[in-house]
Amino acid sequence: MEENAPSMGADMNRWLLYMLLQTLLLLTTALGCFQKTVKGNGVWKGQSGDRLIQSWGAPDRSETLSDGTRVLTWVSVWADQQSQATCRKSFTLNKEGTVER
Predict the structure, then answer these.
(1) Which of 70, 96, 79 is nearest to 26 (CA)?
(2) Domain span at 32
(3) What is the pTM of this model?
């Protein structure tokens, strides 16, 4: 075996460290999404849907329910070679176009 060649143990340690960092990155991203959702829940309540769209941009999905309310959903996806995290944030607008939740 060559003197300067990396040992199998060193390669395994690097791989484990890499996987640990990937997992921490995924968890940090997911936690950030959760915190933004929890903190932002009440901010838009009572605001106009038009103002929400001006701030957030066009939603990724929009559904009109049978009672006339609309649900606007934004989706953010973070991905790398090993993992993926998805954050969804939905707002419900009443018939007048005001954010209810």
Answers:
(1) 79
(2) 8-93
(3) 0.60
